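# step 3/5: fold
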Amino acid sequence: MDTSNNVRASKNDAGPVVAIDGPAGAGKSTVAKAVAKIFGMAYVSTGLIYRALTLKALRMGIDVRETESLVRLAETTEVAVEPNEGECRVFLDGEDVTGELTSPEIGAYVSQVAEIPGVRSALLDIQRAIGSKGSVVMDGRDIGTVVMPCADVKIFLVADFDERVRRRVAQARERGYDVVEETVISEIMHRDKVDSGRTVAPLKPAPDSITIDTTGKAPEETIMEVAGVICEILSKNKDTKEVAGGKGDTPCFM
């Protein structure tokens, strides 16, 4: 897949990469959007890329168990991402579908699509192309371990199960969706099992990531804690690079 047409340039074209990973409901998107604004960086939710492909599959009536069909779809679909400060718009074959990607229906199927190795491989280059531009905050489940293993800052957010359920229910209802708590519980349990158990890019913190528990914390509290960690690490990195003669600015991939 030619990623040159899949990454819409943001106004930032150099700078650090911040990776924020964690399970569903841990607060990744809320925190990532906020810190992107604080630091004047682009924000990218890699989960939206998988949701866009899931949306297309559902529109076409493709069963999410049809692995080969989904891989072909991933290899031929135009998914473009337009990152900016605190905003991430996703275009599916030229159509802005951002507003449709958080629906409960897509949430119920996206984990099955995202666990397919061929799908992850097809969409990986798009994610890396975005990260290689730099000055970006990326949230997902494998940013620090697979997508951008040399990110300048790696943060892994966690929260207890009950709190993650409450957040997801409140978030869905704020968006106007009528959800049942029991359904959300089932979906998060399934998502956790799939994300942590898949053979390719399982959900886990990178060895050099900072784990932050968001349980019982207001969003503003977590945001400031994460911003503080970012400031501290980037400051240390800057000092190290200056001593080393400015080397080490280019993202690397495993």
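# step 4/5: annotate
The two ends are 19 Å apart (CA to CA).
# step 5/5: archive (pending)
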